[in-house]
Structures are given as structure tokens and as C-alpha cells.
Amino acid sequence: MSLAAIALIVVMLVCMIIGVPISWSLILASGASLLLDGSALSIIPQRLFTSMDAFTMLAVPLFLVAGDIMAQGSISRRMVNFADSIFGTIRGGLSVVLLVSCAIFAALTGSALATTAAIGAIMYPAMTERKYPKDYTTALLAIGGTLGPIIPPSIVFIFYAQSSNLSVMKLFMSGIIPGILCCALWSVYAIFVAKKEKLPKEGNFSWKKVGIAFKESFLALLMPVIILGGIYLGIFTATEAAAVAVVYGLCISLFVYRDIKVRDLLPMFKNTAKTTANLMILIAAANVFGYLVAYFGITTSLTALVTKLAPNAVLFMVFSGLLLILCGMFMEATAVVVILCPILHPMAMSYGIDPVMYACFMVFLLCMGIATPPFAPSMFVACGISKEPITKVTKRILPMLAIQLIVGILIAVVPFLSTFLPSLV
Length: 425
Hints:
This protein is an all-alpha fold and 425 residues long. It has one domain (42-423). It is 79% helix and 0% strand. Helix 5 runs antiparallel to helix 6 (93-109). The longest helix is centred in the middle third of the chain and has 31 residues, at 265-295. The two termini are 40 Å apart.
């Protein structure tokens, strides 16, 4: 590799180690490499603009707004009540209710932290009131939040599509079966823990109770049907679906449920604007970095090196999987995707690995890091709600992380799990 290529990697790593924000680390590294190469620095603003000039990127702020609307209104609470009417009557049923609610909320927002915060605000008080262990409840919230970037629509998948030129719709569909499988296995584990620790049982099942809860939550439950159904039936794109989610959420929250006032919208939009700005700066900087990775031939050099160390696709999947888990433990999933996708995606294709399966594999393993210390943002949000020490919660969450790792391995071993639904498009 050339000196400029080495500088690109070294400057980025040094900046990140000393605490420079990831976005600026990528920009500084890009500038340093261009100066050493003698190329024009004007490449940076040109690539920054090009990366934002994409229709799919409009979906990010729209899904964030939709998440805020559901969290602040009663949409998420009504969904939880419906899940409670079905699963709440079994021993430890509230654990299952929490996980199912996370899955439903994830199918509307695509955000791990929004899922953890919204469901945690509703479920944590209810579960602690019924004598569920606080550290166990916190662990469930943290692990449930990781479904946000897996079950579509997913903000992380949007960034992956932007970095790899894959279809957003196919990536969305690749996460459905793994996400549901993971939620189901966690629920089985939750029932096992409930029986082992003799957690409370909430009365007997009643169809009347289910009917009442369904009636009260019908419009809320219709939201994921409209959004996901519209995407998969080809009625609208993922970006248009995000706009539909915002409009639908606003209409039923403002005019039907009337639990959000017009005066609440401005603070909501300000919060989304701040979050969106941070994400967009990151994706723009990563686009510049990814362009230079290809320009300096870093991918080609690394592919040749990896080919010697991993002569077949199996070893490549093992090595890249370990790398993704490690990176996910120290960095945000979105940041890892925009940095590593331009490098690992072409490598995976050179081994003949299905690109959609590898995208799902990559995002899924990175999502483990959302609940794995030391980074663990969803765990920090959950612990912020419960005030439980991270050390206690970590012990509780390890079996759930093991289940998630098993599903991640299954994605690689059984590509059907992630490729079947996209193949129907």
C-alpha cells in the first residue's frame, strides 16, 4: 500500500483512540491522505455532498420522528397492552410481553435506543411492581432494544444499502426471520427463567380481555401493517413508508387518541433534527473515507492478505464475525457499518458469499454490541431507567447474548433464513 493509504488508516485510528469524534476522525484521515497523495482537497466537499444526495437518506429523520410520536403518545402503550392480554397470563408473561413489544416497536422505528427507551418507560414500572428482579428486567430491556436495527425498517440497513448499493427493500426483508427467531428464543428463555425463579403469573387467559385490548389498540396495530405491507407489496418505497408512518402517527395521535398536542411537536422535531444531524455527518464523512479506501486500493490489498489467511469463505466468515463482534463492543453499529462495509462487502463478494446474507450477518452481529459492554448504548439507556449497576445487568444478559450469537451463526450456516424473503422480491 502507498504512504497515503497507510496514513488514511493510521490517522483515523489515532484520532479515534485520543477521543476525536468518529466523523471528524474520518474527515481528518481523508484530508491527511489526500495531502500526502498530492490530490485536491476539494474531493472532500464533493464527496460529502454526493453522499447526502440520495432519496433513501430521507427515511432516516422520518423514522426517527415516527419513533418519537409513538413513544410520547399512547401508540406504544396500546401495543404493549395488546401483547399483555395474550402473553401476560403465563408465568413470567410480562417478560415475553416486553420482548414482543420491543419487536413490534422495532418494526416501526428501526432504532435500538428508541425501542429501549419507549418500552422501558412502560414496562419497567409494571414489572418491578409485580416483583420481577430489577437487574433481570433491565437486561431484558437492553437485549430487546437490539431488535431495533434487525427487524425492518432499520436505520442501520439504510446506511448499509447506501454504502454497498444494495436494495434497501431486500436488506429490510433479510432481517425479518432472524429478528423473529431471536425474539422467540429469548421468549423461551424468559419462560424458563420465570419457572426457575418462580416469577409471578398474571391470572387466566381471557378472550374478552384480548378483544377489548385489540379494539383499543386496533389503529396502533394497523400502523406496522400499513408500513411494512406497503413496502413489501410495492405500494411505496422505504422512504415513502417513513413519511406515511409520520403522517399516520400524527393523525391518530393528534385527532383520534388526542394524547399529543400541537405544542409538543416543535420539541419533538428539534430532538429529531439533532439526532439526524449527527447521523448525517457520520454517513457523509464515511462516504469520503469509503471512496478513498477504494481509490487507494486498500480493499484490493486487504483482500489479497485475507485470502492468504482465510483461503475459503468459511474462515472469512469466522474472522469477519469475530471482528464485527469486537467492533460492536466499542463502537456504534452505524459507525462500524459505514467504515467497514466498503472494505468487507467487496471481500465477501470475492468469496462468492451472498451479499444480502452477509449484510444481514454483519448488522446482526453488530447489534450484539448494542447490549454488550463496554459500549452497550441500549444497556446504558436501560440502566438509566432502572438505576441498576451495569455489572449486575451484565451477568443477567450473558445468556441472552449467547442466544443472539447462536442465531447469528445460523444466519451464516443457513443462508435461507436471511435470503428467502428477499428472493421473493
